[in-house]
Every structure is written in structure tokens, then in C-alpha cells.
Amino acid sequence: MLAAIGGLLLFAGFSTFVMGAVRYFFPSLESFVPNDFKRILNMRVGVYLFLAGVLLLRFF
User: Fold this and answer.
1) Phi/psi of residue 14, nearest 5 degrees
2) Which of 1, 2, 4, 24 has a Cα-to-Cα distance from 55 of 20 to 30 A?
3) 48: exposed, middle or buried (Cβ count in 10 Å: 0-12, 13-18, 19+)
């Protein structure tokens, strides 16, 4: 069960990182992101989610 959660965290972390990178490198796309998601969709949150997924897959 924890391995499945780790796999989902890997996918969520990677996709959040990619969306954060797109927002960073193409600032003209900021108007397409809702205000509620601007804190969540950044590269730091993506790296943290990816790291949590790797840790879950490594130890469980």
C-alpha cells in the first residue's frame, strides 16, 4: 500500500515540478493559472513530493 502511495507521489511530484518549471520559464502563462493554485504549482513543492515518493519506495 505504501509503495503505491510512493508511486503516486512520484508522478505528482514530477508533474508539479514540470508545471512549476513552465510557469518559471514562461511568465506570460501566469494568467492561465488560477490564484488558488499559484502557491502549490511551483518547483519546490514538486521536488518535495518527488522526494517523499522516493523515500516511500525506498524504505517500504
Assistant:
1) -65, -45
2) 24
3) middle
Distance CA 11, CA 34 (A): 22
Cα–Cα separations (whole angstroms), residue 16 to 32, 38, 59: 15, 11, 23
**Rounded to the nearest 10 degrees, what angle do helices 2-25 and 43-59 cross at?**
160
Say which amino acid occupies 52: A
From the CB of residue 58, how many other CB atoms can be counted at a distance below 10 Å? 8
Residue with cell 509503495: 3
Query: What digits encode the pLDDT tens for the residues 6-57?
Result: 999 999 999 999 999 999 999 999 899 899 988 888 999 999 999 999 999 9
**Alpha-helical runs (H) found in 1-60:** 2-25, 43-59
Neighbouring CB atoms inside 10 A of 30's CB total 9
